[in-house]
Description:
This protein is of the alpha/beta class. It has helices at 10-16, 26-30, 35-45, 59-78, 91-104, 120-129, 140-143, 222-235, 255-290; strands at 51-53, 83-86, 111-114, 135-136, 159-160, 163-164, 179-183, 190-193, 203-204, 210-211, 214-215, 252-253.
Amino acid sequence: MVGFAGTSNVxxxxxxxxxxxxxxxxxYIEAFxxxxxxFRAFARAHxxxxxxxxxxxxxxxxxRVAARVLRDLGDADRGRGSAVxxxxxxxxxxxxxxxxxxxxxxxxxxxxxxxxxxxxYSVDELVRSGAPxxxxxxxTHVGVSADAPYLDSAYKLVExxxxxxxxxxxxxxxxxxxxxxxxxxxxxDVIALRxxxxxxxxxxxxxxxxxxxxxxxxxxxxxxxxxxxxADLAALPSAARSIRNPLAPRAxxxxxxxxLTEHVRRRIEDEVGASEHRRHEQSASRTRRSVPGRGGTx
Length: 298
């Protein structure tokens, strides 16, 4: 949510203090005998900034009609932030044409909103192309988590009753002990034991958020979350911030955590080995007792 300047969801706007913004539907325009009638009715019912959907029939013709309606409203009634919305076709090319038509009509302040199944890749392409788009309306791909429709997560026990534990399952080995992650500018993050001292200028990242089923810290506001996100994003290497094929930075393990991991691994392997040895001895003992003697079966 930190990347959005507003929402068309009224409940979300109320709960999070986001500006409630939106526009009309194509069906609204189709319900009128003429596109211009729809635009004027919408402007009367929606005082202040309005966003007019211009591609129901012909995009360029729709921009011309919208420009006429917005110009007739005047600066005071139109309000700052009025826009036309493009919802189909080649958004980059249509944005260039719409910008030219609006400027020619004396409406350089009217913005251009683009929608139509946008995701981070299409937005990135439009931004890089220099398309004169002021607002990107992203909906479907956010609402359904299209790129990651599920979250594979599991609880991993790392300590029980003060005893460090770990898994040795193939491709699922875990590290034992309670941990902390330290970050400092210009260095790899360090995954360490919780009671280790941070490196020079290192900042601990993990805080207790819940304990015994109850939240232990105040829920941050959306503005606070935005500030934290911006700072965390800026701290990432440029290769990790790439929209396509990002290279994720890898954290390193502290010496103390590596030593504990090796110690616990040896302990578990010794315990498993001893258990297997006992099992083989017991199996061999049962076999000796069941072997027939020279005089036949007992």
